[in-house]
Description:
The complex is a heterotetramer, with 2 copies of chain A and 2 copies of chain C. By secondary structure, chain A is α/β, with parallel strands linked by helices. Chain A has helices at 17-28, 41-51, 80-83, 92-101, 142-148, 176-182, 223-228, 248-258, and strands at residues 2-4, 34-37, 58-60, 65-66, 88-89, 107-111, 114-115, 121-122, 125-126, 134-135, 151-155, 193-197, 201-204, 213-217, 235-242. Chain C folds into 2 domains: 7-122 and 158-291, Glutaconate Coenzyme A-transferase, CATH 3.40.1080.10; 127-156, no CATH class. In chain C, a hairpin with a 5-residue loop joins strand 11 and strand 12 (177-178). Classes of the chains: A alpha/beta, C alpha/beta.
Amino acid sequence: MTVIPTSEPDDSVAVSSTEFLAAVAARELAGKGRVFAGVGLPTLAVDLAKRTVNPFLELVYESGVCGAHPEGMAEGIADSVLVSGADAVVSMQALFGYVLQRGNVDVGFLGAAQVDRHGSLNTSVIGDWHKPKVRLPGSGGAADIMPNAGECIVVLRRHDPGALPAQLDFCTSPSPVRARASDPRAVPPGHGVATVITPLGVLRRPDKFGELELAQVHPGVSVQQVRENTGWDLAVAHEVTETPRPTREDVRLLREEIDTVRLYLR
Amino acid sequence: MTVIPTSEPDDSVAVSSTEFLAAVAARELAGKGRVFAGVGLPTLAVDLAKRTVNPFLELVYESGVCGAHPEGMAEGIADSVLVSGADAVVSMQALFGYVLQRGNVDVGFLGAAQVDRHGSLNTSVIGDWHKPKVRLPGSGGAADIMPNAGECIVVLRRHDPGALPAQLDFCTSPSPVRARASDPRAVPPGHGVATVITPLGVLRRPDKFGELELAQVHPGVSVQQVRENTGWDLAVAHEVTETPRPTREDVRLLREEIDTVRLYLR
Amino acid sequence: MVKPVKTRGLADAIAEYVEDGMTVALEGFGHLIPFAAGHEIIRQGRRDLTLCRMTPDLIADQMIAAGTVRKLVASFFASGSAGSLHEVRRRIERHDPEPLEVEEYSHYGMFCRYQAAASGLPFFPLRSYAGSDLPELNPQIRKVEDPYGGAPVHVVPALAPDVTVVHAQRADRYGNVQMWGIVGAQQEVVYAARRAIVTVEEIVDEEVVRSDPNRTVIPAHAVDAVVHCPGGAHPSYVQGCYDRDNAFYRDWTPISKEPARLHAWLAEWVYGVPDRAAYLAKLGDHWPAAVAVGERLSQPVDYGRRLA
Amino acid sequence: MVKPVKTRGLADAIAEYVEDGMTVALEGFGHLIPFAAGHEIIRQGRRDLTLCRMTPDLIADQMIAAGTVRKLVASFFASGSAGSLHEVRRRIERHDPEPLEVEEYSHYGMFCRYQAAASGLPFFPLRSYAGSDLPELNPQIRKVEDPYGGAPVHVVPALAPDVTVVHAQRADRYGNVQMWGIVGAQQEVVYAARRAIVTVEEIVDEEVVRSDPNRTVIPAHAVDAVVHCPGGAHPSYVQGCYDRDNAFYRDWTPISKEPARLHAWLAEWVYGVPDRAAYLAKLGDHWPAAVAVGERLSQPVDYGRRLA
């Protein structure tokens, strides 16, 4: 395994962790058709992707909005700016049943408190469900998105053994590995988590039933550092590249056109 | 069993069989809230009911129209006049699932080729289903309406042992008696057929699991005549009344305001 | 990379997506029946189709008479007010000129089959069939146990057509489809099908669609081709555009009763015209005078716009 | 016999239909959250409610803090963009001041529960739970065999609330309710519930409703009381009427973190005002200036009218 630097120092610009993650996530959306976007960092990433690598990305929200064309930045998946001027607002049955469960979503964009080696997610609790240390938001649409979206991209704001543990405290949204283990006939149509973007690097899971492996390290991060901060013995891809830095234009768009009020940018 | 004449000879007016049936059926809708109306004779009956005994009867159609206020006579359950100016046009899932199957329809108004003693209906075939003597329209919504409407009213244009046989050629829409026989736990919420209006009289089924019994004979028809024209040994109510004739106003409304083009009136 | 424009000619779209032997759903519940598409399928000589329509209507009678259909999956075997479909009856009652395979449901049963496929489910539950003879002769109607202790529940299996064609009032060129009035099974059948063609009365600017996103019944992502086809639902109707041609429906009964007349009709009105525009021209003064409707506009609603 | 007019005062409707111990669903997915109704339930001192909401939001935090709720049935335990609901967290994490019973689903699972009840079915199938820990701790999530030979399918049971309250843009006095923008689970929860109260921004003439029947999401027959309640969704929003009060949402986090502040807030803004009009008056200049939206009208569609 070798680390191959790919970014040019000349491109460098001082960026926050959020800006970095949003820019990396945006690039993952190149060539994708339809993305099921959550709120927060995904909002920044999909907007940036539309302004850079994928102008015709279709934004789908669990609130029923398909083909959003927001005039301002959405402060939630049910924001009125997603509705005004959208191509369609459909019923929840149409959205979750026909659009999602039927397999019309290419990419589900999720957050999580914990991700395990197979890309199962915990968004419910830290500790025991019955009296948890931290009560997290729960599934929302995540348990519905995971089996049914073509693939999922997860963005984590932390990379440490707590966020990437050997064992989840609770599995809210299972990977196909867990689904198959629960019942060999219950293989979901989707790939599950294909990509995890963290503050240290990018993990990928090329095999639907395989493990995450380290595919990219961010500038200044070593493979060793990523492995030490992961709760299991993280596999490493044959070639590990260095994550390209956000371009000056990425950063300008994020700051001056997308999140002008610094709602999500920190 | 005694026949009690109720109509006044002074009210009499020469009426066709269709006019008579429509007027009798309209009166059955007094005090009912919401009726699921088919096309043809039910169209005349619900319109007449709204103009006489029940001005606020809500008309629901399997096409999704709820609260129709047609400006002209509908030529089908999907006629554009039922849509323009209606209170609501809902999805098929809302209509069949939420309105009907949830139990929000008081009266289903059905036609049939055959009715048996328990009010099961055949609208599919005369003869063997695989190569029938006559291919009839089939269920349409009837098999959905029968178990789920509060009660059903059936209008028959013939009263003979072929239309009221001991055994149906095919059971499209089963009575609760047949449903329970198929599975004791499968008792439908609705009463099934409560009333059958024929050219000879009115049969009623007061018990959800009972048989039809002769409750009314039309003027000039004897109890014996009805029994002889029924394919089973028809029970007779303790008191049989004579069906009131249509009023002059009923007939005027049908001819001059409802079916001015004589589409259904014969 | 460009946003895909999906406008196509009808003949092109049918030629590309409809193949012999396919399962084809043409939906439209009394309203918006895709007659132009059905005629184009006949003209292109497709064979051995499994035709799915809740209410077969005249279009099924015509397609079956033309030898296009091997099997009919339906829930009502007559035409709304016009009575029997005589070609359908001849096939079923007398196997004349040959038998027609039939799979029969209730309306809600058919709709639930589309809903199941549209939802990526193997089946859909409903309460219609306890005690009916329908499940006995149709082994596709089955039961599942209620894991909450109630009575078993009937289910129908997913019906995922290879291709569907539906008709609507308007769409933008990307395929965002808006319809109003009776919407039938159109949304469900489009999501159920592998391919969807939508014929429309009008192609409108996307700003028209986007002024009222709740009116979009079928989002562009579910549509493969959108075809500008005015009058495409005649002799059925399009709410607010033209009314049902009841005279035409009534005339069909004597035509369909006699195979010779029926085939002469097909020769003249389907094979004898190249497309829907020619068909409408051939209707002459009858179109659109006999089916014109007056105006009754919806009152607009305000979607609002965020103030800067 | 008169056509039933269902307009009522909010306090009357809540007093008549909401009783201690009932299962109460207040739906509205980010949009049209029935805050005025929730506050009225608090003011009337209801106790031991089972509160059902896909996205509990601030209204659940407030109702739970007020001691109204014994159990929460939900699928997302935070507020859209504003983060944690601290009263909910205190109850669950520390049983402070007492435990809160929780039944947890995914969004589609909750929605399917309403769909099942709205459809008169014992359960509804979905594809979300294979391998998840959710079914293990929630015995209400079960499986049925696929009678067509596929894998077993997860199902959720019908959820039929005793009463539901939803908010909408407009209704006529008979209770035909129209809404646009995000429609959430409102149609389903109203049909699922035994009783339904609808609060609306505007009571309109029935001719307004009847000019656009496809916009009627909830027909009058499903509604028990319709309440004129302008501003009834603040601090959430009503598409085209007023926007979400994001400042209010952000302010909630520090308030809800401290029980004393939270209770002072309830005293001032819920117990301290008699009704929603007084609440809006108390907002003063903030209402409606901070949440005003510009106009963006839908283009009308033509429903047509039969020519005589």
